[in-house]
Amino acid sequence: MEKFTTLSSIAAPLDRANIDTDAIIPKQFLKSIKRSGFGPNLFDEWRYLDHGEVGMDNSKRPLNTDFVLNKPKYKGAQILLARDNFGCGSSREHAPWALEDYGFRAIIAPSFADIFYNNCFKNGLLPIVLDNKVMDILFATETEINIDLEDQTVTANDNTHSFEVDPERKRRLLNGLDEIGLTLKYEDDIKLFEEKYYKKYSWL
């Protein structure tokens, strides 16, 4: 998992509340358990004018030019702004996979659905909770937004806003450690245990 320390990026403003995981990545694209390849179908029903299916050539599909991610000024945005209850609905982990695969590293909203919020940290995404007054300021920001995870701050137009994050989750993001990475830190201990275990229980 890629480390998250600081991030400076234009933010894509998705000014909607209660965006569910089926809107983030529609159900027909959930046939793979690989973490990659979902980015082109992120917000599929909003990005394209036709109905998307697995295997379609997205470069040939008609775009909804009114949708924020299709606007040239937000191309390459690594920060997504949203409203309350982002990531509600089913618990599919494909939702953070799609956001990360598209290129987002952080999502800022007033609130998140619990399971989605937890899944973000497992996949290298930083979900930041800021109140609605601050969100209104960020939605009106036309310049880059700066995020500092160590200091737990979001800065836009020379105004700095603090956010809370669980210390252990913060440590994992700063060091790029997902659950597999955490396990591999104890690889030598695991091997030693296995050697002793199979010597003691050689019939297994």
- Give helix % range: 25-40%
Q: How many strand segments?
A: 8
The N- to C-terminal Cα distance equals 35 Å
CATH second-level architecture = Alpha-Beta Barrel
Mean pLDDT: 92
Spatial strand order of the main sheet = 1-6-7-8
How much of the sequence is in beta strands? Answer: 5-15%
Q: The CATH topology, please?
A: Aconitase, domain 4
Number of helices: 8
Parts with pLDDT < 50 across at least 5 consecutive residues: none
CATH class: Alpha Beta
The largest pleated sheet is described as:
4 strands, antiparallel
Given the helix and strand composition, which structural class is it?
Answer: alpha/beta
Summarize the structure.
It contains eight helices and eight strands, in the order ββααβαβαβαβββααα. The chain has 204 residues and is α/β, with parallel strands linked by helices.
Description of the structure:
The protein is an alpha/beta fold and 204 residues long. Helices cover 31% and strands 15% of the residues. It is built from eight helices and eight strands, in the order E-E-H-H-E-H-E-H-E-H-E-E-E-H-H-H. A four-stranded antiparallel β-sheet has the order 1-6-7-8, with no helix packed on it.
Write out key terms for the chains shown.
single chain; 204 residues; alpha/beta; Aconitase, domain 4; 4-stranded antiparallel sheet; 4-stranded parallel sheet; 8 helices; 8 strands; 31% helix; 15% strand; globular
